[in-house]
Each structure stands twice: as C-alpha cells, then as structure tokens.
Amino acid sequence: MTFPTWPTRTRAQRGTVLPSPVVLLSVLAVALAAVAFFTTRGDDPAERDISATKAAATPSDEPDAEPSDDATDTPTEEEEKPPPPPVDRTAHSVVVFNNTAITGLAGRVSETVKAAGWKVAAADNWYGTVPATTVYFPQGQKAAARQLALDLGVARIKPADTDSDMSATNLTLILTGELD
Question: Which end of the chain is least crowded, N or C, by CB within 10 Å?
Fold first, then answer.
C-alpha cells in the first residue's frame, strides 16, 4: 500500500499565519500594564502620614465663629496641644523573657533595663513563639511601653495577650535576640 503524496508548497505559497486572538490580547494587556506602571509611578513615598489630614477633616460640634476682618495670630487648637507628660520609669515594672537559645540573655537585658531607670519584676524564659523582640503592655500603659521600647531600641510594641502568661499589671519584654 502506498500513501498518496501531495505536492509540497514553498514558503511563499503557504502565506502568513496570524497569531490567535488570545495571544494578541495578552500582548496588548502586558503593554497596557507596563504603560500604567510607568505613568503612575512617582517620586512620592508609598506611605503617607494621613493623621494631619484626618484631623483637619473631622467635623466639629461647635458652631462656626463669625468671620471677622481682624486677623489674629492665635494658634489653632492643634498647635496648642502640649506634649504628653514624660513617663515615670520607676512607676512601672518590667518582666523580661528570653525566647532564644542564648543562655542568660534575659538576665543581661534586665541589667540594661535597670540601668535605663526601670524596675525589673522578673527575668525568665518564654516558652512560645514570638516573631520579633516585642514590648507587650497591659491596658493603660501604652505610653510606658513606647518609652521602654525607645530606651532599648525595640521596634515592636503590642497589647498584652490576656490568654497567655503575660502580666496584667507589668510591661512584658520578650526577647528574640540580642538588643542592638
């Protein structure tokens, strides 16, 4: 049995084959995405401080004052806000936990905490998982937690977890490595 043979065509005789519509749409989508990326990208930072904008946009319950022709140089309510009072370090106790395999870390850091003016209530090992060195604070002690974190160079503060062994009255410092 012999198979029939067809005459072969040369490239010029075959013509051109266009890509499928899916390929054309994909190329178009990538091109539009690239144009959008480069035209919307700016030199501005990705994160913006919106606290000032939010405060200015908050409606007031007080009626608007009558406009006057006299210009006054009195500062607005926002400018008059006094800075928060300094934290009394001796009024707060700190519990220091070591969440690493470094022997004696909690004891060494406790000495650093004492040298910064804080009272250390206890130093022990933490049996759990904490992603980064953190200052945990009980309700009402956020300012003290911020000050402790600032004193020690800790970047992370969180409210105390009431379901764990964290103190409900003291600041809790859980170490995941040496302090910088």
Answer: N
